[in-house]
């Protein structure tokens, strides 16, 4: 029996299986592919028979659905075996189990990398966070379950994973901004904003990247664009967080240099704040903030 520990299953894009030697495995038609995707999504865990039937057939299961499922499992096993790959699909009293390490499936590796990357980000370990999150985002080869999208289980899972991907992109941008990589981030963030134009965190990160790269006017234009879009699409104003970033850009306080980890943590330790050119202007800045919440444009003179 061939060792399958090096096998790799991709779900973050078109379904693909690679053998331990790196060869792409032909899995067969839509139904066996959907079955493998559903089992791989739960790699190492028993998937109940009813869950498999619902995931493959939805509200219209065939007569003799249990027998139909057994037939699909047999087809999948034969297809993999013909390709020279032995992937244990175990039958249990409650259902079936793909006996693979979750780390052999890109979805599970993505989830782990994002979790660890977010933990490093929260700890101020920005280089490590960026490396983990960059690897996580790089696992994506297109929309999740792209070629089995018609399977009843796929749509909800694809939406869930797409949301996690955007969150990972945002966390990666946060780590890169903390490392002072403002200019290098602009193109990536523009692409992300184009895909998710109402995502305010991405807009704020793009504003910070532009401002940190010395492109303040473009950063301010991003804010005006999202403020218009929010009003037109949702009848809403920008969040206080995004408005705060706008104020920071107006003040010229977005900085492009890398700050040591100790300096970043000092913000919450009661150490003196960094002196800026706006000392003594607290009242004026507070008034600007009030006007930005109430209106769409504030002109500063002098």
Automatic annotation (TrEMBL):
InterPro entries tied to this protein: AfsR-DnrI-RedD_regulator, BTAD, OmpR/PhoB-type_DNA-bd, Sig_transdc_resp-reg_C-effctor, TPR-like_helical_dom_sf, WH-like_DNA-bd_sf
Coiled coil region boundaries: none
Positions of the DNA-binding region: 1-100
Domain OmpR/PhoB-type: 1-100
Keyword Ligase: no
Family as reported in the entry's similarity comment: Belongs to the AfsR/DnrI/RedD regulatory family.
Protein name, entry field: AfsR/SARP family transcriptional regulator
Organism whose genome encodes this protein: Streptomyces phyllanthi
Lineage per the UniProt record: Bacteria, Bacillati, Actinomycetota, Actinomycetes, Kitasatosporales
